[in-house]
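I am writing to request your help with a piece of structural work I have in hand. A protein sequence and the structure tokens that stand for its backbone fold form the material at issue. Please examine both parts with care and let me know of anything in them that strikes you as inconsistent. The record follows directly beneath this note.
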Amino acid sequence: MPSLRIAFVLSVLGSLVPAAAQGCASGTFWKRDTLPVSPTGLTAVSVIQGMCEGESAGVVFEMPANMPVQRITQVVAPWGAALGVGGFQAALDLEVYDGVSFSGANVNMGNLVFSLSQAATANMQVQSHALNTLDTSTYNIIVGAAPPNGSPAVRRFAICFRCDLNLHPSGTCATGYPANFFTDNSQTPSFPFTCNNSITPQRTSIIEIQGQGWRDAALATVTGISLCPIYYSGIWCIRCCSEDAFPAQYNTIGPGCPGTIGIPTLLPAALPRLGQTMIVNVTNVPAQLGLMITGTSGSNSTLGSLPFDLSVVGMPGCFLRSSLDLTDALFTFGPTASWSLAIPNQGGLLGLNFWQQAFLFSPPTNAFGGVMSTGAQWQIGN
């Protein structure tokens, strides 16, 4: 946007990506525009023709105070054309920022946590007239880890799309592109020309303008003239899906070996969460004595690679499935034992994985006089 070239164009959203691509199969669906989740029929939008190649559009999302750190699993990029004409293509770069803050019209983008061009050496291919989707579940894009900012303090992240290549045959940066990003606006500007905060709310849509950097779309100016409402109105129809980045987990990874009353089994009673006490019960305990083994690896130990065959020490059919970093005595209650661990409320522990297995004394079972429980892998979560 080196000059005032942002044309207001009313269009129709007539052919969309299937509805399944617009919602989220699981997790949280994020959108700030007012369009339906999956629009059908004729839906009025505003195509912002003045966005040049190299410039970016983004939406800033605010996270609830108690929401866990999130992993972005899908993003949605709006690409439309005047009069709803389909088939015009473009190549976009996806950029995700964590810890966004505002100072008037200026936007501090925080940490760039993901760039599609850097991570995959690729672009997102989009076309009009659609809410184009991209599955990002394999990229491990984490947001919500940056501390809250502002007053009141809020955690914010931004989903942004940079136009690397606009393939509309008649468009230029100087004259505008008839195919471009679109907003949810359906109102034409009317006198007096003032920005309507209900249509174009502040701290929601952002624009990266050549020579200026990132700006709040509701407050941005070019050559001293406000873009809203004549040259820009509405909210970018940029959306995303997310899931908890570090859910508390406790999963079985391998079988145990039978003692006198069956195979000892690890069962979580309270999952490993920050600031809480995790509890694991052990069933089918053959004697009143045992050890809980907890390790930082499920592939290597001081005895060798895992799982390690314990037949060499007189425990045929039994395998060690955790490294031997920590051993605790088990407290037994008849055929059941219980083990607990208080987990500090420290953010650096989020997502750490550990492996675990119980050794139970069972003198009649084999030459060594012991058996192993099922193995488990657990992750510290929120």
Remarks:
- Residues 287 and 361 are 6 Å apart (CA to CA).
